[in-house]
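ugh finaly. both done.
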Amino acid sequence: MGSRPACNVADRDALDEVFEMVRASMPPLRGVVHAAMVIDDGLISDLDAARIQKVFEPKVEGAMHLDAATRGLSLDFFVVFSSATTVFGNPGQASYVAANRFIEYLVEQRRAK
């Protein structure tokens, strides 16, 4: 079995390197599954920029980078995992709820294009 490329998808340069390696040495990419998450529970009044960024980085930035990197590809699927918290809310997970709603919007825009 060959090597399996890996990177932090929130790091666009690292993701671009992996995509270049995949293009050069593997069959065409047919799909993406993005299931990153960080939960840093806290009431919104207790959050600061660093805590929000810690949650947003893997889910939001990762999804944005994967979306951009795959826009021109003929994929069979592009799956991102959200949460029911975007419908019901959760007072202790404001950053997580917001990050999930953002990726839902990203996928809505992707489908529309």
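ok and the 2nd:
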Amino acid sequence: MKSSEMCQSCGMPLAKDPQHGGTNADGSKNEKYCSYCYQQGKFSFEGTVKEFQAHCRQKMVEGGHSRFVAWLFTLAIPRLDRWK
């Protein structure tokens, strides 16, 4: 999967985003970040990358994923554009 096809904050495939991308401050679509991470030109989570990984793992477990799958899917977060 190309980086342009996934959120550059959490790594979620943008095709899975119910809003098909976040929104910029002017209301236009942002194609780099998903709607869970980026709304009205601001990130919805402020904190360290480690805190964000833990936050994402918790949300994934709440959504029905196993702890292992949640851990596996969040491993690459530090390499995404937002966290470089």
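summary for the 2nd one i guess: Helices lie at 49-62, 67-74.
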